Amino acid sequence: MNETIIQTHGLLKTFKQANAVDRVDITIKKGEIYGFLGPNGAGKTTTIRMLLGLMKPSGGSIQVFNKDLKNHKIDILRKVGSLVESPSYYEHLSGKENLETLRKLLQVPKERIDHVLSVVRLTKDAHRLVKEYSLGMKQRLGIASALLGDPELLILDEPTNGLDPSGIHEMRELIKSMPETYGITVMISSHLLSEIDQMATQVGIISKGRMIYQDSIEKLRSKARPHIRLRVGNGAVAKSKLLKSGYVVESDDDYIYMEDGRDEYISELVATLVNQRIPVYRIEEQRQSLEDIFLDLTREGSGSHAAHSAS
Ligand SMILES: Nc1ncnc2c1ncn2[C@@H]1O[C@H](COP(=O)(O)OP(=O)(O)OP(=O)(O)O)[C@@H](O)[C@H]1O
């Protein structure tokens, strides 16, 4: 499971002196579903286009399957399936006929068509014209096309864009099955963490061209621990008194924050504050959603309290 599938070092793309992708190091291991996240304009599509050899980097290096993309492009891309932006089809042909035109180009065995249609659950609709397909069916046909060449790596750029919740759910189930059932490593981009939560095993978050977080989704989740917030008479004084008494707290204006929310801990803390004649006005539990953490990380000057206390 430890084999590296994608490794970039200092990947850079400059448009008119602005860095759209700013020295990004991406590591994707075999069997992972790597969620590549970032707000609109963060640099996801530009990065993906470079990974697929569709755009030349301004600097840095790209290794795929431990080979340099610059020197082994054909070899590498033969083992990569991709879906970048909305795929275009011959609308007057059936889903199966569309796959057949692609199959001839790729020169893969005919049996692959029925196989990929069944993987994306389009067997029943294989003979319907693509112009009659829903957006979700078209996206699934896009995945079928990406799978036709029997890839080891699938790179999907916002495949859930424009899909309704049930379409997103179907896409998620489909992608989740890729590593285990078919041995395929997946990189999938999105601007919404909620869309790739529950399927990604690893997350890379990019903001303004820079990678600001890259680790397991589990670690990101652990940042979403609840914390307790107390409004007190004077946060700074309260903090110094509490620290002297051995408590681990943070303060900000008239607020005291702490991560340990056990009942006995809170009651002792309040008693300590009251004994020190510091008024306690309010006690509340705050819970950050994954989306909050994502927003905090990507927000300008991500040193806001929530990001700080969750780290
Ligand atoms: N061909 C280009 N010429 C000039 N600037 C470009 C070009 N392509 C992208 N950019 C700029 O690079 C930055 C990153 O764009 P990119 O499309 O990679 O972001 P993204 O994260 O994929 O966003 P979205 O989710 O909106 O697709 C943006 O500021 C964009 O305007």
UniProtKB/TrEMBL annotation:
Residues 6-233 form the ABC transporter domain. Pfam families: ABC_tran. Coiled coil: none annotated. Keywords: ATP-binding, Nucleotide-binding, Transport. GO terms for molecular function: ATP binding. SUPFAM superfamilies: P-loop containing nucleoside triphosphate hydrolases. Gene3D superfamilies: P-loop containing nucleotide triphosphate hydrolases. CDD domains: ABC_BcrA_bacitracin_resist. InterPro entries: AAA+_ATPase (IPR003593), ABC_transporter-like_ATP-bd (IPR003439), ABC_transporter-like_CS (IPR017871), P-loop_NTPase (IPR027417). PANTHER family: ABC TRANSPORTER, ATP-BINDING PROTEIN. Belongs to the ABC transporter superfamily. This is ABC transporter ATP-binding protein. It comes from Halobacillus amylolyticus.
